[in-house]
Design brief:
Layout lengths: L1 H6 L5 H14 L9 H25 L8 H14 E2 L11 E3 L11 E3 L1 H20 L8 H20 L4 E4 L17 E3 L26 H23 L2 H11 L1 H6 L4 H27 L9 H14 L4 H23 L2 H4 L10 H15 L8 H8 L3 H4 L7
Parallel strand pairs: 2-3
Antiparallel strand pairs: 1-3, 4-5
Length: 400
Amino acid sequence: MTAALRKLPRPDDRVLAALAIAAGIALPFLFGSGSPFIHDAILALSYMMMALGLNVIVGFAGLLDLGYVAFFAIGAYTMGWLGSNFFSGAGGGEGFHLLVGSPAAEMPGIHVNFLIVIVVAVIFTTIAGILIGLPTLRLRGDYIAIVTLAFGEIIGRIAINGDQIKIGPIWDATLGRLPLLPELGAEATLTRGKQGITPVDKIDLPLLDPFTSLDLRAWYLIALALVLVVLFVNLRLRDSRLGRAWVALREDEVAASSMGIPLVKTKLLAYGTGAAFGGVSGALLGSYLNTVSADQFQFSFSIFILAMVILGGLGSIWGVVVGAILLSFVNTWLIPDVLNGVPGQLGLDFDLTQLSYAIFGFLLVIVMVLRPEGLIPERRRKLELHGLGAGDTAGAGTDV
């Protein structure tokens, strides 16, 4: 029976991909322009980009990263710095504007087109990824986890206390110029701590009207477009020479080195590539949420994204997509909107949202016990955990 099923023709992957893309494009038009479902879908797509980036580091290369929230923070602050009145002294108080329309073009501060901000965020986060990768080159296992955890916490502390880091004077409107002495006027800081950078510019793309908070369809479509780009890059990387080097590194670092794979370059490329995807998502969320605050960059968020990767299947691109969608909607819809009142109905005095991360942990335990390879596992990973006969392994590829 198994042999007969194996001989049946499989649907063309390109046809399935085209159908999935068409369904994704049509989805927001089934709901109102300001529907909470579209809001949840935008968050799910943003988290999906981060999960795909973390999957490059953890799933492809086998390098544990517990500080991935740092790349989200860097991408979001890049959007805040280059798309708000945060640096109000720029341009002599009149602002610096690059390819933006009204009203951003008439506001003080720095206002740069969203597409350029994305490129800058990719550069910043790639550099940060390489920097976090350097201390881990000679480390393995738990030691890598400790270093990446420390990096994430360092960025988080900088975000909270960055309002104490002075980087220059703010334009003084009463003087009509920059103050000659620091005591004559306030100074610009690196961040605004928990107060946050707000408002942040909405996306303003050529030939399109500026995005608004009322019509969420445009935000959904730009998030979907970015996810498709990230998916394309992931698929090409997975099947490339570099992707095979990452897999070899994950399987056996010593054997990979003996076969001539440059460990330093391969590891740094994994960290840099995965970080770049987190930066893109951070910039998008910074603009969409209209604020960049230190409260957004907690350690628990790194675990949240890592749970998506583990739930879907380490190294499995489509598994990570499914894991990101499931956990995101559990977090933004199922727990707060559907199950939140259950404890009260049972006579308990608390909301289920207070136990969100405990629920995620319980789900991970269940998955690890019942299906340790993930919901949609990578075929090589499935072979490692379960083993298959010679007839079954003959057609095993990289992914499902």
